[in-house]
Design a protein that fits this description.
The protein is of the alpha+beta class and about 180 residues long. It contains six helices and six strands; from the N terminus they run H-E-E-H-H-H-E-E-H-E-E-H. The chain has a two-stranded antiparallel sheet.
Length: about 180
Amino acid sequence: MTVSDPRPLTGEPVALDLLNTRWMLEGVRQDLLADEEGLGIWLRANGLDGRFAADAATLRHTVAARDALAGLVDRPGDPGATARVDAVLGHGRIRATLTAEGPGEEAEFADAAWGPGWSAARNYLDLLRTAPDRIRSCAHEACILHFFDTSRNGTRRWCSMAVCGNRAKASRHYARTKDN
C-alpha cells in the first residue's frame, strides 16, 4: 500500500521540495524525513524511487543535503553554508554520454546513497542560474515552506494563497474589525 504525501506543498523543484519535507502543522514542526518510510514518499513524489533506495544511508545523506540547502537558502552567500552545499555536490558528477538517441548527461555517484541529496543540490544550482530572485520563503510568519515563484510578474508571497495567503487576509480583517 502506498502512503500519501502529507505535506501541504508539493510539486516544487526538487531542491525546494526537499526543503519542504519540514513544515508546520498547528504550531508543531513536522518532518517527512523522520524515517525511511517518509524518505520513500519523498523519493516517489520526485520520481527518484526507481533509482535510489529508501534506506538508512540514503536517509542520512538526504537529511544532510536538506540541512545544507536550508542553510544556504536562509543565508544566501554565507561561506559556511556554501561550503556545506559544495560538499554535497562533491559526492556526484555529471558524465557526458552518447547514445543512439544522441548526446546526453548522466549523474554518477561513488555512493548511490548520496544520489537524492546530490540531485537536489544540483537542482538548486539550476535555480540559481535561472532566476535566483525567484527562490522564496513563504511570507507568512508561521510558515517555513519554500517555493519557486513562477508568477508572471514575480510577486508571489505565499506558499499557497488558499492557506497562508488566506490566513494573512483573515488576520488583517480581524485586526480591522476587533476595534469596532
